[in-house]
Amino acid sequence: MPKEERTERPSPAGPARPPDQSWAEGAEAVGAAESALPYEPTTGTEPAMIRAGGTAPAAGTPAPAAARSKTGTAPAAGSPDSGSTTAAREGGDATSAVRMGDDAPAFVRKGGEATASVRPGDDATTPGRTGSEATTPGRTDSEATTSDRTGGEATASGPRVGTADASARAARPVGASAPTGAAQPAGAGTPAGADAPARPAPRPGPARSGGRTRHTVAVLGAHLGGGMLAAILARAGIDVVLVDSPHDATTPAGETTVPYTAEVFELLARRYGVPELSALGHFGQLPAEVRRTSGVKSSIGFVYARPGAPVRPHQVVQFNVPSEHGESHLYRPDVEAWVHRLAAGHGAKVPQGRPVFTEVRGEAGDFTIELADGSEVGAAFVVDMSGPDAPMLRRLGPDPALRPLRHSSRVLTAHLRGVRPLERRVDPGEGGTPWTGGTTQVVFPGGWIQLVPFGDDRTGGTGLTSVAVSLDAKLWPQRSASAEEDFQQLIRQFPDLEWQFAEATAVRAWTGSEPWQYGANTAAGDGFVVLDRSAVRCDFTLSRDVTLTAELVHEAAAHLIAAADSGDWSVERFRPLESFQAALIEHGDRLLRTALTATTDFRLWNAFCRVWLLHSMFAALSLKRARNDALSTPERASRWRELERYRGAGLWFPVYPGFVALFDDMDRLARQVADNRLAPGVAAERIFGQLRRASFVPPLFAFGDPTDRYYNFTPLKRVKVLLWAKRRAPYMVHRVLTRGATVLPDVER
Q1: What's the angle, vertex CA 93, arms to CA 91 and CA 98, rounded to 5?
Q2: CA distance 64 to 67
Q3: pTM of the full predicted structure?
Q4: Is the pLDDT assigned to residue 192 strictly greater than 60?
Q5: How far is CA 85 from CA 33, 75, 684, in A?
């Protein structure tokens, strides 16, 4: 592209500080980050990725696996209180991520053929339980739908009834027909593109012991994360058994996705050859029974409320995006039932009748998992994703296995019917859309309430709404032993909320926990790892829970497949995974602490949510670019290497470093506000100033204008952003905003 169409490159010293603008105090960090890379690529090469500011973070937190080198070492992360980059990944609620060239609704292969997505009836399902067993434990009859547990699937000691043995499936060439009686999910035998790997031959597993099969890997926890991981491992030819946990059906879980989450799902589908997982990021491709009980998420809105007063019309922010994916509100019972069938269809073993586990005995190479029906499952290696009282946590040493996080709030959750639509009370404004069309967060000093409507009937009296409340215990101490009464006392202080919930009744009972958040001190043991909800629990806001799960599955699958290939299942082999998870936990904690501080003043929240959205948008776009670059690389051995290096601010793929510096500076300012060293309004103006000044922020977004509170990304705006990206944006920003810059068209999605 011609140089004359570009703006001048910032000086190496960073932007000059205007004497009359206080917001410029932190601009040096962003300016230095922008000048850390060549403004244009050198001839025949890509710009080298380096950390923001060009300095390594200080020691103090575990280094992520994504930053590991060939020697297995990883750089240390910055201290969370130092203002430097922390070693973690951010998977936020990127509602307005721009997706260029993502119009194709199905996987596109070379030659133009589209593989089918899994649909109801395509999987191998077995007769469901009857009578009282048809309802998942912990759910009322009014909530029970198609997520009923299934019986008659594979036992731990043999092939599943009605399907071929997993080893026979794994050995079949791609595209081969299944034997008589075998069930093969639609698309399961066809890669997600011509570059997808063929199903490998099954890896040799341990021999039988004591009259039972000893599987290579046992995954404890048959929820979204466990099901996805089991499907990926089975697809890779690993002998894996998926075991239910007593908490799978009763533990509250995240229920919203955003474009960044969708990109991680897409990466799982493409990298590991499980195309059906892409449907989790493309609402229209989900089975009909899942779509019926879930819902499309067309916006994310923030409504700022103050105790004793109605919401002020100018204190609302809404991001509306006509997403090509159709972001989702996921009704977890039905989604997890579908993912479980998907895992079984790809060859994961499932104990007949799906009894929950009760205990784990044995040692590395020979674990015995006791089940509630008296049977046993053997495994050489255990991945524990079962929950906070995970059995493998007790094996991690005498120190407490779990620690409270700095963002330590109490969380109340429930599913309600009869929640009145908030738009009848709080006008979304001329540029907005009804709040019930997406996820709404009612924000107030010291906390927030997230509202997630399900199904087609979102505005009627029968509509189902998920409610998740997060409260700073210092500002909002517990006043009742009942979580429901505690919630009622809270909403009585907000007139609009009291009206909204006046006729609401609980369908899934209220739960409460203080503190809610926790993180594992260690995660890798001799013959096992502790991941996901066994190792971390965070708020559901900003889609952190679902995104975190998807990111951990992506990282864990790579390590487990590599261990199976090399035969190295040692503790040291999984230390990078442990460090990566710890870093991701730290970053999520950092994000939520900043969010909680921002609730103290609408001006600061207004600034915070724009930085978060910008960060999330470009995280989604940068991950998509990195994925497409990898898929266009013929050498498989190193094609995913660029997705294994940490860049800062929770980003583990190539990204323009200005985003890292902007996020870090926002965190620094929020800590000053929390310590009463800076007024919230001053911090907000400094953030808005950086948004106005940074060369990587498209001017059309108007993120630097605090009065522009509605974001609607129309087709016309898309064209204008493309023109800006081609003519004025830094090269790395240009790459993620334009289609087909370095990859073949059939790789784009």
Answers
A1: 100
A2: 6
A3: 0.74
A4: no
A5: 12, 12, 21
